[in-house]
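User: Some background: our group keeps a shared notebook of sequences we're curious about, and every so often someone picks one and asks for a predicted structure to add to the entry. Today it's my turn. The entry only has the sequence so far, pasted here. Could you supply the structure so I can complete it?
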Amino acid sequence: MENLDIHLIFPPQWSPFQPFLSTPALKAFLVERGFAVKQSDWNVEFYDYFISRQRLPVAIDRLDRYVKDLGPEHDSYRNQALLALGILSDFDRKSQQAKGLKSERCLRTIDEFYTAVTAFKRLLFAFSTAEPVVEVGTSSLSTSDVLSSIPSIDEFCSNPEINPFLSFFREKVRAVKNEPRYFGLSVIGQEQILAGLTLSRVLKEVFPDVPILIGGSVFSRLVDKTNMISHFFKKYFDFVLRYEGESPLVELLECSDPFATPSSNLCLLKNGKIVKTKLAPQVTLEQIPVPDFSDLDLNSYYSPETVLPMLTTRGCYWDKCAFCYHGMIYGDRYRMLQPQTFAETIEELSEKYGVKHFALNDEAIPPKLFTHLPKTVAPGKFYFTGLYKFEKYFKPEHYRGMYDIGFRSLYIGLESANERIQRHMKKDNTQDVMLANLQDAHDAGIWNHTFNFFGFPTETRKEAMETAQFLVDHADIIHSEGTGVFSYEHNAPISKDPKSYGVSEVVQKPGNVLELYYDYEVTDGLSQEEAADLVDEFGQMKKSAGVYSYGGWIPREHLLLLLSRYSREVLLRKLEVLDRGVHEGVSWAENVNWFTLNASGHQPRHFVVNTQAGKVLETNRDAVVVLEFLPKDIPTETVVQHFPVLEQVMAN
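Assistant: Of course. Here's the predicted structure to add to the notebook entry:
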């Protein structure tokens, strides 16, 4: 058995729809230099475990207790527990449908695909409702108040009754046969913090002599909070590898005693104090080989076809936006992969792994590549999605060229349509440029998705409503959008000079000692609460105007797969028909479940739930029997006509 230098592990919680890029890029670099490296995706495996049959009895038992024991002040949660029990009463079918998301067959029709995605999300909801603390989504993780203090974090990381990661990790770690010199954990999102700490603690228990290294952007930023982070050294991990890891990790693996002579980019605890070592020179993108996904099971992701992540750049060519911290992760140094190298890389990845779909995870694809990629990438072979920035430089031919080589969707940070706010946040876009770019991309056949937020400091209600109205008015060329509230982040330029942006006070969020986002107060303009209210108001505006009512359930990776099968206009029509049917309750058999609760010494209680509408009906045994024998293709109206008692639960 090969002696491992390092075992790289990607912990939950992250998207289960595609592989990540962090450890495949790192592994390729290390292997090329002669190191023995293993990588594991314990994120997607956790999803399999979390909604598995082995966890079903515990989940049902907990939900039963919630329904029976919670007082009237918890009616809302009891209602969620009843919905969850309804979903789990149909576990076998829902589980098969969710697993179908891993098969290309689910793409045969939009209806089949929707059924698979929805089944997966409903199982996550049901099992999460049964959890005392965590709520696992496909792109989110809620953890109650666990992060409110160091003692509560320690308690969570050692208590299997409240921590679903713990049992999973104990099983995975005990199965590790080849002890490495180091374990390396990639933590690239805040949602991974608790699972990453839990895993670190288990690794310490089973392999006490193997140093643990934490890499990724999250802990690179958290080490600024020395009072908090020092607690976790030794007890959970030994080193934090700051920023980019390629050459620093080579240094570390070549070092005989990193505690005595620490290598570059490290943060460690020495004599009770946090020590940060010098930063190593960054490598060029040409020095990083083609990412190595070879020991990841690409069929394990909840996607009917594999979408591989790619980077054409590190850093951002603009690197001025007041709200964005990404540049600091790359030392505020921007590097771009040469177009020919990019073309050769995707050809090699396609040949090696049989893939044709790629997601470019750049902060913004640079304008230069809009010119040169169409000249170097073979047309008709691949499909791409990516993020970019509005630029007056772009012309219709740029978008046509990108479409011809396979770009089917582009995601762009609109943020605000108000030009004063654009200048204030150092983004500097104008409405004329926004509309020209969106129109040209639309005309080329590309799906436009905009990211937007309300509440950048000093923004007035009138200015925010300008953005809302812009989105409604131009829904003909903006095909989907995501709108939220401005987030004040640690390390972003605004955090270095808050007063110049109109922030009067920055407040540590209560309930999270490892928080990288802050509450804040403004000198004038919308408060955080008022901005949140505007998001709700915008939701009503969209509903009244009949825009953006389709496809909100589709993950980014899956949208690319659909757009590679259907033209944008065909897909839009199919989604509109599907969503209309969903809201009209056409597919009642997919949404309506029923079950019986049996309590010792009490009469059985019978429930019918509509998981789409979030409705619960307590009824009698006769109604449940009727539903068991009804053909599943009978229209909702017919069911309600013959059994009026079911109307209150079947109507969406």
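Suggested note for the entry: The longest helix spans residues 110-130. Residues 419 and 430 are 6 Å apart (CA to CA).
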